[in-house]
Structure formats: C-alpha cells, structure tokens
Design goal:
187 residues; alpha+beta; 5 helices; globular
Length: 187
Amino acid sequence: MAKQIGIDLGTANVLVYVRGRGIVINEPSMVAISTKDGKVKSVGVEARDMLGRTPETIEVVRPLRDGVIADYMVTQAMLKYFIDKSCGRFSLIKPEVMVCIPAGTTGVETRAVRDAALHAGARRVYLIREPLAAAIGAKIPVADPSGNMVIDIGGGTTEIAVISLNGIVVAKSLRVGGNKFDEAIAN
C-alpha cells in the first residue's frame, strides 16, 4: 500500500505529515543552490544554516513567495527532498500526496503545485485549500450546516474563510503574512 503524505507547503516552513506517524518534518522553505551549475546543494535546516555563511558559489533562496511558487524547478527539488526524506529514498511505491494551497490561487498556480509534486515523486496529488485544512486540523465541525470562520496567518499569506457543509462558502486570500508583519515591526 502506498504511503499517504500531507504537505503544508508554506512560504516560511514546510510541514510533512505521514499517515500513522504524524508530523515527521518541520523545516524552513529554503534551498541552497550552486551558482556555478544551478544544482541543489541542501534543503531545509541545512540550507537555513548556510544563510549568510556561504561563499559566492552558493545562494540560499526561498522558492515560494507570498504562498505561491516563485521558482518552479527549485520548488520541485525541495518537494522531492521532503518526499524522499519522509518515505525513504529507495521506496519502491510512490506515495499519495495531499498539498495545501492558498484559497486565492489561480488555475496556473494550482497546476504548478500539482505538476511540481508529481515530478517530485508523487503517484497521485490531491490539493486542499489551506483554510479548509486548518479547520479540519483544528477539529472544527466542517460538515455542519453552520458557518465557521477560520483565519490562517502564515509566513506569506493570510487566509480568511467561512466554512460550512464541507466546503468554503466565501474566502479571501491576502498576500500579507508573518514575514511582512516582522518587517513592519522591525521598521
């Protein structure tokens, strides 16, 4: 049977949940890339530790900006790293992956996430809107006919949604999150 993985692909951090094991990865959304050949050198905590300590030959980047993919190839490499790390590098059966996406993503942005996960090693990819995933994670009765408001503040986006009858009734996705809050406080 294929492993089932849930990935919260955030601007600041990536959380990976494996069914039966819980959250197995909580690392920064950072990738260290060689400036000479463009190859990925490290991902996550290792890349964050290189930040500010690397020579001119290595650049540390965040492949997601404001909750969406800014660099497709680097995001794909990052997803591959996290899928391999959570399943084992030599797993014979590709996992089924569910990825959280902001409520306000366009069709192009949605396809980019799906394609990146498929090319990173997923057998099947399912997408779920972040406010709905947050409501389910908070054990809010999403199936009830009453409206429940959810506010999900991430590193790059803030998602506000009213959820009822297993769906999002109305949602607003703001491209402002914790990173901009930190910047405003520092200024």
